[in-house]
Write the structure tokens for this entry.
Amino acid sequence: MEALNKMTVEDLEVSGKRVLVRCDFNVPLKDGVITSDKRIVASLPTIKYLIDNNAKVILCSHLGRPKGEFKPEFSLAPVAVRLSELLGKEVKMATDVVGESAQALAAGLNDGDVMIIENVRFHKEETKNDPEFSKKLADLADLYVNDAFGSAHRAHSSTTGVADYIPAACGYLIQKEINFIGGALANPKRPLVAILGGAKVSDKIGVITNLLDKCDTIIVGGGMAYTFMKALGHNIGTSLLEADRVEDAMQMMETAKAKGVNFLIPVDNKAGKEYDPDTEAMIVNSDDIPDGWMGLDIGPKTQELFANAIKGSGTVIWNGPMGVSEWENFAQGTIAVATAVAESGAISIIGGGDSAAAVQKLGFADKMSHISTGGGASLEFLEGKELPGIVALNNK
Ligand code: AMP
């Protein structure tokens, strides 16, 4: 896999050089105050490496959706303040993206200095991957490092276009994503088990199709599982159904059979009367969910079935909860699977977005080998798609 062969920040000669780093500083803000600095903290290893190696560090990122206009509520100024506290050193803040302020600050940097330019999405050219804008970004620096995995599936100027003009490598965050996800797909420790859940089959068809060629076992739970049950002719009551995906679901199960992939779907479910956290609930078999009831979690027999399939695996890739895990009454299936993954001793890779949030909230984060920092990006990676932000980097 080509992604495994990309240059990393350690392959660059950074001393005395201006290095433009694309970070993911898309932090949650409330009334101008950062409510979680997790993404800033996650960017520290790459930034510290560059400072320690005497680079002149120029950081850039998007924040929210200012839609190509300067809007003060999307300024990266609060990020500069927080980053400065975390680094224990001054972080200079430009008042523009590639204009006079950014250019003057970049020109005046000493070795080991750090600055941030304004939100790259203040220019509409950014999301169009406009070559002139990419060149202006590149002109601020001698070298480029991409460390924003969450935006790596987007071909924008600051994630992709800039690499046309200056040498480009990945930072530690992207390197870790490439090593874990890329490594699991290219050369997994077997058996390789994929667990897919969440609401929609349509979101995961590409992932399942790609994984059918690679996995020993595929486990499907969550709301998406009911479309598979429907394909088998089961009565699924009022459970989630994507009627236009029943054919696809059938096809995936047939392909699995033909390829000798163990394909597991729930055999029983915890069903509720209403879509409500405190609804009346009962355990029902998958081949007979009564009319007026909806499956909101996997049942106890399924928890055991899935846990047994996870036990003894070499690598587990997990994306999507097994039920409505935000609700205590329907979180048990996700907790059981998380426990089985944690106890399996396997290399465990958790997709970003909802799965990462569920694993964190349920207290299993430190038991997993890798929790991806990109929801959409990790899904596209698992689909086998090339991520433009990674493709653009120089090969070793
Ligand atoms: P996704 O974004 O596709 O990973 O889906 C995550 C969402 O799926 C969560 O908000 C869950 O509440 C929801 N979900 C999981 N299982 C079910 C289910 N059986 N019925 C309805 N929603 C579900």
